[in-house]
Amino acid sequence: MLRFLLTRASLVIPTFLGITLVAFFLIRLVPGDPIETMAGERGIDPARHAELRAEYGFDKPLLAQYGIYLERLAHGDLGRSISTKEPVIAEFASLFPATIELGICAILFALLVGLPAGILAALRRNSVFDHGVMGLSLTGYSMPIFWWGLLLILLFSVQLGWTPVSGRIDVQYFIEPVTGFLLIDTLLSDESGAFASALSHLVLPAVVLGTVPLAVIARMTRSAMLEVLGEDYMRTARAKGLPAWRIVGLHALRNALIPVVTVIGLQVGVLFTGAILTETIFSWPGIGKWLIEAIGRRDYPVLQGGILLIGAVVMAVNLLVDLAYGLVNPRIRHAR
Amino acid sequence: MPLLDIQNLSVAFPSAGGTLRAVDGVSLTLEEGEVLGVVGESGSGKSVTMMALMGLVAYPGRVTADRLAFAGRDLLGMPARERRRLTGRDVAMIFQEPTTSLNPCFTIGFQITESLRQHLGLDRKAAKRRAIELLEQVGIPAAESRLSSYPHQLSGGMNQRVMIAMAIACNPKLLIADEPTTALDVTIQAQILDLLLSLQRERGMALVLITHNMGVVAETADRMMVMYAGQVMEEQPAKTLFTAPQHPYTAALLAALPERSEGGRLATIPGVVPGLYDRPRGCLFSPRCAYATDHSRNERPALRPWQGGSVRCHYPLGDPSRDARIRQDHPVGASADVGASADAIPEAVR
Amino acid sequence: MSAELLDTPAASAAPAGPPHPLAEFWTSFRANRGAVIGLALIVAVFLMAVFADVIAPHPPNLTNDAAFLKPPFWQAGGSLTYPLGTDAIGRDILSRLIHGARLSLSIGVAVVAVSILVGTMLGLVAGFVGGATGIVIMRVMDIILTLPSLLLAIVIVAILGPGLMNAMLAVAVVVLPHYVRIARAAVIAEKSKDYVTAARVSGAGPLRLMLSEVLPNCAAPLIVQASLGVSTAILDAAALGFLGLGAQPPSPEWGTMLADAREFVLRAWWVVTFPGLIILVTVLAFNLVGDGLRDALDPKLKR
To answer: According to its UniProt record, where is this protein located (chain B) (predicted)?
Structure first.
């Protein structure tokens, strides 16, 4: 197990260095002078220009510049946003909880619907229900979620008036950020109705963001279950006279979860891609919206820091998923 | 009252080309503590018969029987819940592939204690103690430390021992072993078989030993049942079956045993078990039988009491009037097949 | 690549002679109802793209000052002149969708063509040459896979500047690793097999080996991936268009149309609904065909 994790971890380091390279070259590849790119459109006086040039080492060879960049990184210095002048890492830290909250709710929604749907579809193979689940999940998989979000706004916000159109919470509430997760912070605060408001803001974006993972999880669960149901040990479980819920819910599901866990891990990248679009549609103040606005303002330091941090997060999650994979699969855990 | 009473059991699987009768009118009774050997080629329905008894035939398979009773209780009529309480406790089964028959995600200990807790309501501690006892009984060394092993960490033979421990956990009255040694190394096969038989004797439980290898059951079974294409062809006390088989199919199976081969050549039975589409109208074995006649091709023989057991043949081998009746009923391809038939039905029969 | 995909089944359906592999393939493909529906939809979108000039009732960018945000014909105020209504500056939505099919199909096919070509080559090299070259190629692919696809595409567009061509290039880079992995896995699996050894012993050079022996053996997964790749490409390009980083207005690219329509979501549902619907239908069609191809070409890949 340890060895398995170490192997995985050793692959992470070169990948992370690769991502630092991408981020490093991002600013240098944008047409124009990199200092001016970093300073923004307002321009910069020549003295400050020269100062920065020396600081970042633009007069030195590329390798030295990369070294300086890595050293800054090691100190947590990802530069400052051009538009707000705030450190990129601070902005990221303040916005990231919103994205995590959205992402967790989305994946919970996908699991709560996708797992049972996939299990039932496998148990009733070739039934109307099975065909329905498979058809819907392929549709969900093919869904342009930026349109799906608009459509749900059209239906639930405009036609029915059930949910708000955008944001995380009604403006009347001011919630002191404790955890950064509004669902928790509103419960901690004394303001009545704040939690309901936060929840109603969260529902549609979470559903939109969860749609593609839901489709993938449902399909994967179904095919994994179908495979497992035909295994010899399922016959043994039935021969032991176990109740049906135990046969399906424990003996079958436990095995079917192994490939499903991998697939859930792969959804992390998909979630970030989706978050960029979902946050844009619902004006959700998270990382995705921040990055898109940074592009609009040509705020390259933000983009550079954002890609690095997101890459790091994805890699960390992937490692966690490998760990979870080892936990659900004894063959890996006990591999010598 | 017999322990097991099966009358006219059929298992049918509907398929695109028609209904496949995997088991076709099987009747069988078994007394407590009896050892029954069931033999037949692959696809003869011997496993499916026992699966039907265990309630393991899954949709779309359909099980019908005039009577399917265990210890006097009708299995088909009882509520599913009650039947589940019976399976795994009073009737247990072990399978051909021990390693794939154990769940790879759970420890040996979990899988054994699961039965104990389910059927006997033991608490965690008691179940664990009992599991260790069971593992010791089936001859697994360092039983306590094995509890936390996973199936992939053990050999096939060890896993089959675990399967046996699991099966006997609740002191079943009947243990069904479906080709328990086929997937194992030759050296292990005898050990597992000995273990099964000693457990059977100690506990006085009935044992059904399914195999396609006559040699395996030769010395162990009290009674033998020979199945072919879903039907019982012959049933006899083991002793007489091996010395005086009554059905040509049984005779051919015996002739195919390596230890009975003559002149360095292994006897084979020509042809294959009939499938869904080539099921004969008459006797199911007639296309491969050396003694088939027009009569046996057109009319299916019934399973009838014969000498010490029963046989499903118009011309049982022990019938003195047999040769005359075969001649009278026009043997099929009499001229061409005489030589072949002499090969197929060897010494033991004559 | 994609034209071949479309033609192969149709051509193989005609001869009813001996069981040709293609005929066999077509039989099993046809048994999949979803795949056939998908194929029919693709053909429809394809025809729409080819004959856009003929079937579209209006030029895609023609504005009409008298018909801003007219609803579809079945709603009060709508007319058959603009069957699916008009957008905020009086352009016919139906005509724009029809012309948009050209863009989306070209994007899908071009992206897949580029990435399959480059990806397969890189994969073959990584598999055959191995060593440092192979490791570098695979590490770069890992990096591409680690970063969320849209984020990486956005970065590339940010460097190159917005526009349809750059968006296509970005998407092509993002989907590259799938092809590299398939080709490399095929090489490694096939390399050790006897027929490759035999070919090598008989003096075939590495290049010849790659192209004539190994490539045909990874054709099946590549074809499946290509079909699924077209849908990914269309979806990603539309997403970039929606974010204002892909095709630029007034281009009738479907994602770009949606971006324009966003602000009218409260007033004119049709401006928002139809472009998204056609993206969904097209993407779904390619995914259906991809699933059907997978089942028909390689039972081992069936999940």
So the answer is: Cell inner membrane
How much is the pLDDT for C19?
62
Residue A335 has pLDDT above 70, yes or no: no
| Nearest CB to C148 within list A31, A143, A314 | A314
Beta-carbon separation of B105 and A255 below 8 A: yes
Determine the pLDDT at residue B291: 86
Q: Quick one: which of B233, B243, B244, B206 has its CA closest to B222?
A: B206
Enumerate the residues of chain A whose CB falls inside 8 A of the CB of residue B104. 233, 255, 330-331
Task: Kindly state whether A216 is in contact with chain C, defined as any CB-CB distance less than 8 angstroms.
Answer: no
Q: Does C34 contact A at CB distance below 8 Å?
A: yes
pLDDT, tens digit, 9 for 90 and up, residues B202-250: 999 999 999 877 877 877 889 999 999 899 999 999 888 888 899 999 9
Residue B326 · residue B253 · CB < 8 Å = no
Q: Is C185 on the interface with A (CB under 8 A)?
A: no
Q: Amino acid identity of B269?
A: I
Residue A336 pLDDT more than 60?
no
The DSSP call for residue C249 is T
Which of C301, C293, C294 is closest to C5 using CA atoms? C293
**C210 pLDDT more than 80:** no
**Residue B346 confidence class, pLDDT cut points 50, 70, 90:** very low
Query: Within a 10 A sphere around the Cβ of B226, how many other Cβ atoms?
Result: 28
Largest CA distance in chain A: 83
Tell me: the pLDDT tens digits for A218-265? Answer: 999 999 999 999 899 999 999 999 998 999 999 999 999 988 888 888
Q: Could you give the CA distance from residue A334 to residue A328 in angstroms, rounded to a whole number?
A: 11
N-to-C CA span, chain C: 25
pLDDT of B78 above 50: yes
Would you list the DSSP string of A158-225? IIS--S-SSSSS-TT-----SSS-HHHHHHHS--TTHHHHHHHHHHHHHHHHHHHHHHHHHHHHHHHH
Closest CB to A331 among B102, B114, B152:
B152
Q: Which DSSP helix (H) or strand (E) runs through B12?
A: strand B4-15
Instruction: Give the pLDDT confidence score for residue C233 in this predicted structure.
Output: 93
> Is A144–C238 a contact, with Cβ atoms under 8 angstroms apart?
yes
Contacts of B165 (CB under 8 A, 6+ apart): B112, B131, B134, B135, B137, B138, B140
C108 band by pLDDT with thresholds 50, 70 and 90? very high
| B92 touching A (Cβ < 8 Å) | yes
How far, in Å, CA of B307 to CA of B234, rounded?
Answer: 11
| B304-306 and B309-311 beta bridge pairing | antiparallel
- How large is the ipTM? 0.87
Provide CB contacts within 8 A for B296, sequence distance 6+: B282, B283, B286, B289, B313, B314, B315, B329
The whole-angstrom separation of Cα A212 and Cα A145 is: 8
User: Per the CB < 8 Å rule, is B166 touching A232?
Assistant: no
User: Bridge-partner residues for B91, per DSSP?
Assistant: B87, B174
CA of residue C136 relative to chain centroid, distance: 28
Q: Which of A14, A220, A296 sits opposite C139 (nearest CB)?
A: A14
Q: Does A63 touch chain B (CB under 8 A)?
A: no
Note whether C45 contacts A: Cβ–Cβ < 8 A.
no
Percent of chain C clearing pLDDT 70 (strictly above): 91
Q: What is the pLDDT of residue A41?
A: 63
Q: Are A330 and B104 in contact (CB under 8 A)?
A: yes
Phi, psi of A77 (to 5 degrees): -95, 110
C-alpha atoms less than 13 angstroms from C-alpha of A37 in its C-beta half-sphere: 19
Return left, alpha or beta for B29; rule: phi > 0 is left, psi -120 to 50 is alpha, else beta.
beta
